[in-house]
Every structure is written in structure tokens, then in C-alpha cells.
Amino acid sequence: MSAAGIVVDGLRKRYGATVALDGMSFAVRPGVVTGLVGPNGAGKSTTMRVILGLDAVDEGTALVGGRPYRSFRHPLKHLGSLLDAGALHPGRSGRDHLLWLAHAQGLTARRVDQVIEQVGLAPAARRKAGGYSLGMRQRLGIAAALLGDPPVVMLDEPFNGMDPDGIIWMRGFLRSLAAQGRAVLVSSHLMNEVQDTAAHLVVIGRGRVVADAGLAELIAAASRNRVALRTTAAAQALRVLAEAGARVTGGGRDAVVVSGLSAEQVVALLGRSAVPFSEVSAHRATLEDVYLELTGGAVEFRAGAPSEVAL
Ligand SMILES: Nc1ncnc2c1ncn2[C@@H]1O[C@H](COP(=O)(O)OP(=O)(O)OP(=O)(O)O)[C@@H](O)[C@H]1O
């Protein structure tokens, strides 16, 4: 495997009785935005802290450009990260914060002004960071991550606190970093945040990878054997389909999504039992469907389950 980007291999970590990482392995390739997505508590932040050498693991390795992050003399030139946008001196201006970081890494004030421009923080750069909104702090954190012009960028929940304009900006910005050839890892617990941004997804649950694939591939896989059904005899249809092992979810009063059977199988089953229907068509899964399907068994905390018809 290429040494460029990030490679984590077999990470295991416990906090007392809690297993935070349970054999986590994946790679983050140059030129692509990789989304690290999973429910709260899945292990995203722990994985990122391990990559940065801030947390020790019980087993496994995490390499950046083929080396442990802590082995770099000027780490900002190898990996730029944003883990906690709140971690800055409130009385210091954004620009002074960056100057302080730059100085420690042998970087110039010119570079500081470049990254301020790049993230669109110029109008606020000389104001005290304590008065920044969370979205502005995120931009400042990203500016800090870019100071050393690193080939690898890693951001923990960068969409947090961003308004809709900020989210659109962030998506384009992350894509542009990848287009420059950088390896970009972005975590989120919300699937729709990484939509239009990440071309590759590492979906995690309970400390392990549950899917590691291209976005298009994941949607295609989740769309297979998903059928949209329109019928005025819903109860009868549900009974017949359930007997054949299908799962039926959501939809309106006469429209449901059937999982686990092909359109042909649904038509044959309904036909055999003389259940009337007006439409059976392939259902294209959404990112949210993919996420729920993959993490359904791995969610620690979930607010409101998806609408599911118990059969
Ligand atoms: N310092 C710690 N002490 C004890 N348990 C911890 C600690 N840090 C993380 N954990 C536990 O490890 C597991 C993984 O946590 P982690 O913060 O990595 O998840 P996450 O995917 O980043 O979640 P979130 O989306 O909520 O930030 C959770 O069960 C969490 O409670």
C-alpha cells in the first residue's frame, strides 16, 4: 500500500470497560476527500487523536506519509488538523494565534496572511478570537491546519456550527484541497454533511469499519434489492412480502419501500396472492439509507428511529 496519505491498521483501544477502537483499519488516499462517518461514540475522534499521537493505542499503527506523526520535526508540514475549534486563546486575535503557531514551526507571517485569505477570514483576522462565532473558529482552525501547506489534512466535524453558506463554502473548499492532490479526511456524524464532498466513505460503528468504499458504489449496493411499491392494499401486501422475508419501511399511506427482494420477486409474489398494486419500481437509496443500513446495528445513541413498519 502507498505510504502517502494516512494508513491506520488494526487500531485497538479501550477506556476501562469501553472498547473505543476495535480493530480499526483504513487508508486515506491523496487527491480524494474521505469521509469518516459514524454515529456518536463510534470512535471518530479517538481515531483522529491516535493518528496525531495524542492518544496511545493498545494495538495497531497509524502512519502519516509512512511515518508516525510524532516522529516529524515540523509536523504542520506533513499533516494539518482541526480537532477542537474552541481550543484557542480568547484574548488573542485570529492572526496572532496563527502567527504564534507559525513561529513555532518556522513559518512566515506571509504564509499566515495567505491562509487567512484562503479561508475568507481577512475581515475578522485582527479581532479577538474570543468573539468569533463557531463558524469563524472553524475557519481559523482550518487556516491553522493549512499553515504548513501539508499534503494531508484531517478535520474533525468541520461542519459543526457552520451556517448553510458556510457549509457550501466548506464543501467546495475541501474538494479544492483534494483537487490540489492532498489527502483529506473529514469526520461527521451526519451523512448529508459529507454529501457532495467526500468521494470515498469509511463508515464506522462501535470502533470498527463497517464499510469502506466509493460513494457511488455504496449507493448502488444499498439500492440493490430496494423496491418502491404503490398499492391500495398495503396491509395485504405487507403480509405477503414479510412472509417472503422482506423488510418494509416508510413511505406514505399507499407507498412503501421494500428491502431484500428484487422488483421481479415483488411483482411475482403480489401477483401470486392477487394483491393489487399500481407501481413497482427500483428505489434509489439515499446516503441516509446507506448510513442507517450500515450503522443500524452499531448505533450507541440514536435520536428517533427511522419510520419502520414492523411486520
Ligand atoms: N477519554 C475518554 N475516556 C473514556 N471514554 C472515552 C474517552 N474518549 C472516548 N471515549 C469513549 O470511546 C468511544 C469512542 O468515542 P469517540 O469520541 O472517539 O467517538 P466519536 O465517533 O468521535 O463520537 P462523537 O460523534 O460523539 O464525537 C465512546 O464510547 C466514548 O465514550
From TrEMBL:
Q: Show the Pfam families listed in the entry.
A: ABC_tran
Q: Name one GO molecular function term.
A: ATP binding
- Matches recorded under PROSITE patterns: ABC_TRANSPORTER_1 (PS00211), ABC_TRANSPORTER_2 (PS50893)
Which Gene3D superfamilies does this UniProt record tie to the protein? P-loop containing nucleotide triphosphate hydrolases
Question: Per the record's keyword annotation, is 4Fe-4S included, yes or no?
Answer: no
Kindly state which keywords UniProt assigns to this record, in alphabetical order. ATP-binding, Nucleotide-binding, Transport
Which InterPro entries does its entry note?
AAA+_ATPase (IPR003593), ABC_transporter-like_ATP-bd (IPR003439), ABC_transporter-like_CS (IPR017871), P-loop_NTPase (IPR027417)
Tell me the ranges covered by the ABC transporter domain, including all copies: 6-231
Please verify whether the record's keywords include S-adenosyl-L-methionine: no
Alphabetized SUPFAM superfamilies for the sequence: P-loop containing nucleoside triphosphate hydrolases
Q: Which family does it belong to?
A: Belongs to the ABC transporter superfamily.
Which named protein is this?
A: ATP-binding cassette domain-containing protein
Q: Taxonomically, what lineage is the organism?
A: Bacteria, Bacillati, Actinomycetota, Actinomycetes, Kitasatosporales
